[in-house]
From TrEMBL:
Protein name in UniProt: Mitoferrin
Keyword line: Ion transport, Iron, Iron transport, Membrane, Mitochondrion, Mitochondrion inner membrane, Transmembrane, Transmembrane helix, Transport
PROSITE patterns reported for this sequence: SOLCAR (PS50920)
One Gene Ontology cellular component: mitochondrial inner membrane
Ranges where the record places region Disordered: 293-317
Any GO BP: iron import into the mitochondrion
Length: 317
């Protein structure tokens, strides 16, 4: 794309949001994947192994299963996160802009746009999460990504990949609500002019993601239980999962892996925010450089167009 194309690129261009979103999603999930593997192990209720800390889980994974074990299954999230986040961000930005231009209350517009985007995003990421978490489990019988997909499909059918979809939505919709509220509070305090500021985007996103992750941990535990069942299905649906978690782990069972989830979500959200805003800024705000290397007068940073959604996987997780 040449300079003229950049200069005339509208800030609402769908390809811009899709490109920035896809890069942000893949980078976020890849960087944080080892900690996501730890979280899955800590939340699992299907095995006899219990873990006391994040460090213990990571140390045992590496010593007993090899140094590459924490990143095994990453291909599933790479395949899912790219298209899921591209659709997520582009849908959110499009709906948000259209609703706010029609006079709808900003906070309501953010909520509605984020909810619709979440439904679409989770439709792509839920199967990827199933495959990823099956491979992340201790003593996983699957050789690789393709082997997992084929064996799950043959043994449990297509619905196995969407068994936790309603739970995923039940978790991510309130997650987004809490995330937006906290993000808006941070932005109002630190960036009332809503200018492009990577440091503030990262800090606001990290705080918002951490708070939302802690609040929605019980639902994430239920999702992990649904995703990691093998063979004959014993638990199906959110209500049954809630009952099963209580029966197995009691009240504290709902908060297994909360520390790993929060520690995962804070940098994950910060990475996603900063990456998305950076590439959106780069694709919509070109810097002209003439033939002798001089740059034009600096322009004031563009104002951020309201909050962009977190990745799901979020909450992802």
């Amino acid at each position: 794309m040449n300079f003229e194309d950049y200069e005339t690129l509208p800030t609402t261009d769908v390809s811009t949001h899709m490109t920035a979103g896809a890069i942000a999603g893949v980078m976020e999930h890849c960087v944080m994947y080892p900690l996501d593997s730890v979280k899955t192990r800590m939340q699992s209720l299907s095995g006899t192994t219990s873990y006391r800390s994040i460090g213990e889980v990571l140390q045992r994974m590496v010593s007993q299963e090899g140094i590459l074990r924490p990143v095994r299954g990453m291909g599933a999230v790479v395949m899912g996160a790219g298209p899921a986040h591209a659709l997520y961000f582009s849908c959110y930005e499009y709906l948000k802009e259209n609703m706010t231009h029609r006079g709808l209350n900003n906070h309501l517009a953010y909520g509605v746009a984020g909810s619709v985007a979440t439904v679409l995003h989770d439709g792509i990421m839920t199967p990827a999460d199933v495959v990823k978490q099956r491979i992340q489990m201790y003593n996983s019988p699957y050789k690789n990504l393709l082997d997992c997909i084929i064996r799950v499909y043959r043994a449990e059918g297509l619905l196995a990949f969407y068994r936790s979809y309603t739970t995923q939505l039940a978790m991510n919709l309130p997650f987004q609500s809490f995330h937006f509220v906290m993000y808006e509070l941070c932005q109002n305090m630190w960036n009332p002019e809503r200018t492009y500021n990577p440091a503030i985007h990262m800090a606001s996103g990290a705080i918002a993601g951490g708070v939302a992750a802690a609040i929605t941990t019980p639902l994430d535990v239920c999702k992990t239980l649904l995703n990691t069942q093998e063979g004959t299905v014993k638990v199906s649906g959110l209500v049954n999962a809630i009952q099963a978690v209580y029966k197995i782990g009691g009240p504290l069972g709902y908060f297994r892996g909360m520390s790993a989830r929060v520690i995962y979500q804070m940098p994950s959200t910060a990475i996603c925010w900063s990456t998305y805003e950076f590439f959106k800024y780069m694709l919509t705000t070109p810097v002209a450089v003439d033939s002798i290397g001089e740059t034009p007068e600096a322009e004031s940073p563009p104002k951020s167009r309201g909050p962009a959604p977190d990745m799901a996987g979020s909450s992802r997780g």
